[in-house]
Amino acid sequence: MGVVSFSPELAEGEVLTAVYRTEVQAESPEAPCLGNVNEPTAEAGFLCVYRAGNFGSLEKQDENAAFYGFESPEGLTGKVGRTGALVLFRTKEFKEETVTAKEKEEAEHIKKQSELSAGGSWAAGTVAGQQTGTWSASLDVKGEEEIKYAK
Question: N or C: which end of the chain has fewer CB within 10 A?
Answer without folding.
Answer: C
